[in-house]
Amino acid sequence: MSRPPTLTLPPCARAHRLDTARGAFAVHDARPDGAPIGTALLVPGFTGSKEDFIALLAPLAAAGFRTVAVDGRGQHQTPGPRDQQAYEQRELALDVQAQARALQAFGDGPLHLLGHSLGGLVSRAAVLHDPTPFRSLTVLSSGPAAIEPTQQTRVRMLIDALGTMGMEQVWAAMQALNPPEAAHEALAPELTAFLRQRWLNTVPEQLIATGRQMLAEPDRVAELARTGLPVHVVSGTVDYAWPVPLMDAMARRLSARRTVVEGAEHSPNAERPQKTAGALAGFWSDVG
């Protein structure tokens, strides 16, 4: 679970709803002072939300990019149905396509797609469905296939709990599921309250369906390579969901740019945002 270092939007950003052909999505939308040189669409991970990218908004805007972080359907402030089929990967990928088309209508330069963790798998599926809206794909702390075995056990436990208990009850159990690597010092009360509220706002069927996707995701790296889309693989030096050497190998298979953010683990976007933003902006500027 990503823990944003702040919940305060920078002056360059605003919260609103992005209207698309597949409904409205809650977003944080940051703009540079002048005309954008490109737009970045940021897709959050499992149990995540748009707030996980707050610390990236100002530095990416300063680099010239309009940056739109989204809550996917059933995540936090974007509602969704109580139906697991609504959260199949294809449906989530089509949502990303719809978000991309809506952003393209603004004409704010080429569109760069980024997915964090589960969002990397969903973003990859969106690109494989149709790469044409996108100038590049960045997979942030996301691997080639299913998550590693220890995390599979944790996700199965969570899915089982969600099938028998309410979200309030599962919240306490969820804390025990956090990997040791993600342990931090005591959190500020407002962040603790936010993490709990985000969890309660998330549709349980979304968590069950996407959790199962992370357990069963096939290796689609070769398919992605055939699209010819420029790819950037970014991670911390340690990752509990996909081992870093696995992401190294994936980058080689894709002939992708590879960035390892020193001092970060599974959420470089929240843990080392300045370094991460610099790497992202450099890649997007290079691919045009």
From TrEMBL:
Signal peptide: none annotated. Keywords: Hydrolase. Residues 41-150 form the AB hydrolase-1 domain. One of its GO terms (molecular function) is hydrolase activity. The keyword Hydrolase applies. The lineage of its organism: Bacteria, Bacillati, Actinomycetota, Actinomycetes, Kitasatosporales. The keyword Membrane does not apply. This is Alpha/beta hydrolase. InterPro entries: AB_hydrolase (IPR050471), AB_hydrolase_1 (IPR000073), AB_hydrolase_fold (IPR029058).
